[in-house]
Amino acid sequence: MQTDDLISLMTAGHRPVDTGWLRRVTWLCALAALAFTALLVLLVLGARRDLAVAWLTVPVIAKVLLGASVAGIALSLFQRSLRPGLRPRRFLPLVALPIVAVVGWAALTLLRAPVEQWGMLIFGSYWRACLIAIPLYALLPLAILFGLARRGAPVDGTLTGACAGLASAGLATIAYSLHCPDDTAPFLATWYTLAIAAVTAIGAVTFARLPRW
Amino acid sequence: MSRSYLACSHEDVPALSLDELESQLRPVFLAALTGDEAAYRLFLDTISVRLRGYLRRMLTRAGRSEASEVEDVLQEVLLALHLSQHTYDPASPVTAWAHAIARYKLVDHLRRTSRHAGNQPLDDQAYHLAGPADSAASEARLDLERAMAALPERTRGLIDRVKLQGTTVAEAARASGMTETAAKVAIHRGLQAMARFFSRRGERPG
């Protein structure tokens, strides 16, 4: 077939294009994934017993803010990574801002506490549960975002995968905060951050190995 | 008075610099996105000349100089552009968008077709070189029509009418007994099938 014929054909099949679709769908998918994941956490793990009073306390709000800011930044970059030519990789360090804030808060907490308490402050009661639950509950949002990425044109698969991983971990963090009974800043800074990093790595490695579009 | 040091030497620029191309092409593509067919045709004609030059240069550098191969990759890139229009951010340069897609598809092509490819240096400068079609060579080696074999007979007839006889979609749709919207959807499916044909081609030899 001649290239000119192909161009004629593409012109003939041309219809108005909605360039905002990808952005809207990304946010809608994220909200739906968050709702499902939170529901799953409530059904499988159950809410923390004191949720009725705890949800307005600083630690729970901090967990939600950490998850929301990581997910928000990552989703915005994820959506841009599906659009060729934008090169959003340079904005990736922005995700470190909320993490740095949490780590700073944790360091302050530790400095003000006696050394004997450090172990308790860092490890809490359920650090293993946190480390397993967040990556596990991030799988649903991750699958949804991977599916969505096929509708875009990701030219940097590692970046798209990492952003999807970060966003999923952020959403899972919000959901898991409904259950997680450990409320210290050092706990948050250690295990939540590690869990988020793990999901990011899984996302980046997995997505880069999927078939190219 | 002191000599002016502000006078700078202007480098010789190619016939149309990337910036000029961008400022020319962006309004055209934005019009195309609203559904303007003539603008879309102009965009595709202009960008394909540019992309052909880029691909020819890159393929030559990778040791491939067959014109039909350039045309193969160009058609694959054009299909990708067509099917990815919704990924264009209207606030960004359209040439950067098209170039990023071309580069991705070129890397793909080199990986598929060469045992030791994938690490060729891709020089962005080559994008500045335009390449008009050699009339004898703008026929691609791959027969895309094979990709359409799986489509319904009516759709194939429609595509042949538009492609070969150059009729408008409205006329072709009427001749095929379809509404214009249905005809456009059918053509879209045909183009998707062609793009799939391209991306699956590497799975088996030949």
How would you sum up this structure, described in words?
The complex is a heterodimer of chains A (213) and B (206). With 213 residues, chain A is mostly helical. Chain A has one domain (21-209). Chain A has helices at 3-12, 21-44, 51-54, 58-81, 96-112, 118-123, 127-137, 139-149, 157-176, 185-209. Chain A starts with a helix and ends with a helix. In chain A, 46% of the residues are buried. By secondary structure, chain B is an all-alpha fold. Chain B folds into two domains: 16-141, no CATH class; 142-206, Orthogonal Bundle (Arc Repressor Mutant, subunit A). Chain B has helices at residues 18-33, 37-61, 67-83, 94-113, 153-164, 169-175, 180-200. The interface between A and B is large, with 33 and 56 residues.
List the helices and strands and how they pair.
The complex is a heterodimer of chains A (213) and B (206).
Chain A: H1 3-12, H2 21-44, H3 51-54, H4 58-81, H5 96-112, H6 118-123, H7 127-137, H8 139-149, H9 157-176, H10 185-209
Helix pairs in contact in A: 2-4, 2-8, 2-9, 4-5, 4-9, 5-10, 7-9, 7-10, 8-9, 9-10
Chain B: H1 18-33, H2 37-61, H3 67-83, H4 94-113, H5 153-164, H6 169-175, H7 180-200
Helix pairs in contact in B: 1-2, 2-3, 3-4, 3-7, 5-6, 5-7, 6-7
Binned strand content of chain B: under 5%
As an assembly, this protein is heterodimer
Proportion of residues in helical segments of chain A: over 70%
Q: What is the percentage of strand-forming residues of chain A?
A: under 5%
* Separate helix tally of chain B: 7
Helix content percent band of chain B: 55-70%
Distance between the termini of chain A: 22 Å
Could you give a quick summary of the protein structure above?
The complex is a heterodimer of chains A (213) and B (206). Chain A is mainly α and 213 residues long.
Which descriptors apply to this entry?
heterodimer, A: 213 residues, mainly alpha, 10 helices, elongated, B: 206 residues, Arc Repressor Mutant, subunit A, 2 domains, 7 helices, 0% strand, globular, disordered N terminus
